[in-house]
Amino acid sequence: MDTLISILHVGTAVFIVGPMAIIPMTGLRALRSGNAAQVKTLATSTMIFSWLSLLTFVFGFGAMSMAPEEYNLSFTTPWILWSSILYVIAFLLNVIVVVPQMRKAAAAIAEAPEGAAATKPTGYGAIAASNGIASLLLVVVVVLMIWKP
Q1: If DSSP codes are grouped into helix, strand and coil, which group holds residue 115?
Q2: What is 80-100 written as a DSSP string?
Q3: Max Cα–Cα distance, the chain, nearest Å
Q4: DSSP for residue 116
Q5: Helix, strand, or coil (residue 117)
Q6: Mapping DSSP to helix (H, G, I), strand (E, B) and coil, where does residue 34 land?
Q7: pLDDT tens column, 73-129
Q8: Do the Cβ atoms of 8 and 45 come closer than 8 Å?
Q9: What are the percentages of helix, strand and coil residues in the chain, rounded to 5?
């Protein structure tokens, strides 16, 4: 059973957390091209993947609890604690900053007059910075999982 939980943990990390980090980057491209519908859809997708990423978090705790006693794992094991903290920060950045800014930018593009000169889209910097930080934090989580200091 511990192998199944570990596989689910890694699988959801790859197929859910990965898109959670990548989709907003596609949203930035859609912002630059002025495609409001695509930005709105990508904001919704980012929100869904962000909430689904909690499965990875849960499966991680399941894998930790089923690990053999010889590994002496607990929530206070430094690499598990830091991975959890960094994941929560990345999750919150996506849910609290990235998705609302993408929705606001999509609304601004949709309300812009037809043929308006393309300028830097509303919230572009907040989306890029927040998603960049969240993605970097998720990379550090992966490194911690592999390295296990």
Answers
A1: coil
A2: HHHHHHHHHHHHHIIIIIIHH
A3: 66
A4: P
A5: coil
A6: coil
A7: 999 999 999 999 999 999 999 999 999 999 999 999 988 877 564 567 788 999 999
A8: no
A9: 85, 0, 15
